[in-house]
Amino acid sequence: MKVVAFNGSPNKEGNTYHGIKIVVDELLKEGIEAEIIHVGNNLVRGCMACRQCSKNKDEKCAIQGDEVNDWIQKMKEADGILIGSPVHYSSIGATMKAFLDRAFFVASVNNGMFRHKVGAAVTAVRRSGGVTTFDQLNNYLNYSEMLMPTSQYWNVIHGSAPGEALQDLEGVQIMRVLGKNMAWLLKLVENGRETVKEPERENKVYMSFIR
């Protein structure tokens, strides 16, 4: 089994990375392969709402010149997906959001590519805005019918300068417990796939409230 993790911070080894790394270390202890990809230092433009991915259904975003399509394929091949972001004005970092908007929309219009994968989100923050950003990240996982492991508190770790998050003992525990629960859920899904029938995917019903 494999998990692919995305670091949405501009800093390669800032506090977002350290939060992700704690989760990943627990996965590795359980024999689950994991890869961390640094998204936040890339030039990634936002979705243009061209809907070419919906028309082409080739599992690709029509925007060229960045690594988003490569990352989408890594997400498709993985059993689990971990997304992490710093907090910018109580929100997801702009580069990370641009990536998530495009990747998850491509997945949704291509037979729900991330459906029933195990997915979790983490945020790193100096002081406030961590929970709102965590909620925003979870929207992508919920929309995609992903299976979400939990911890014993919201998945937020605190720190300002890179590495300070490791001094947040409660935050470190939150990430550690999340990693253990994510590994357990991944194994449940893997071992139950052959014995418990998966519910069929329903085509989404779209309704406009404007008559």
Structural write-up:
The structure is a single chain. With 211 residues, this protein is α/β, with parallel strands linked by helices. The protein has one domain: Rossmann fold. 40% of the residues lie in helices and 14% in strands. The protein contains 6 helices and 5 strands. Strands 2-1-3-4-5 form a 5-stranded parallel beta sheet, sandwiched between helices. Helix 1 packs across helix 6 and helix 3 crosses helix 4. The chain is globular, with a radius of gyration of 17 Å. The N and C termini lie far apart (48 Å). The mean pLDDT is 97.
CATH architecture assignment name:
3-Layer(aba) Sandwich
Distance between the termini: 48 Å
By DSSP, the count of extended strands is: 5
Order of helices and strands: EHEHHEHEHEH
Low-confidence stretches: none
Task: Give the quaternary arrangement of the chains.
Answer: single chain
Name given to the CATH homologous superfamily: Flavodoxin domain
By CATH, the topology is: Rossmann fold
CATH class: Alpha Beta
Shape estimate: globular
Secondary structure tally, helices: 6
Strand arrangement within the widest β-sheet reads 2-1-3-4-5
What is the total domain count?
1
Quick summary:
The protein is α/β, with parallel strands linked by helices. The protein is built from 6 helices and 5 strands.
What labels would you give this structure?
5-stranded parallel sheet; 6 helices; alpha/beta; 211 residues; Rossmann fold
Task: Give a topology summary.
Blueprint: E1 2-7, H1 15-29, E2 33-38, H2 52-56, H3 68-77, E3 80-86, H4 94-109, E4 118-125, H5 130-143, E5 156-158, H6 169-192
Parallel strand pairs: 1-2, 1-3, 3-4, 4-5
Helix pairs in contact: 1-6, 3-4
